[in-house]
Amino acid sequence: MSGESMSSSVLLTDGDRALLLKVSSLLEEIIETFDVLEDEDVMKSIREAEEDVKAGMVRGYSAFIGELRKSGEI
Known about the structure:
Elements: H1 14-38, H2 40-54, H3 61-71
């Protein structure tokens, strides 16, 4: 490289760009999943919520909103 500039450009096709965006999005989702998995408080809350569902301790969206309105929270 005798004094020559090393400027080169890489051209990506639209398909390459779309694939990179998909891969980037998937990697972000994986990182978020690992963040959740290593957060003990979040995992405890998830396990408790799963037990609530198994026990039938759930309500519909409308009922939930009604409770929030009744309590003055919204």
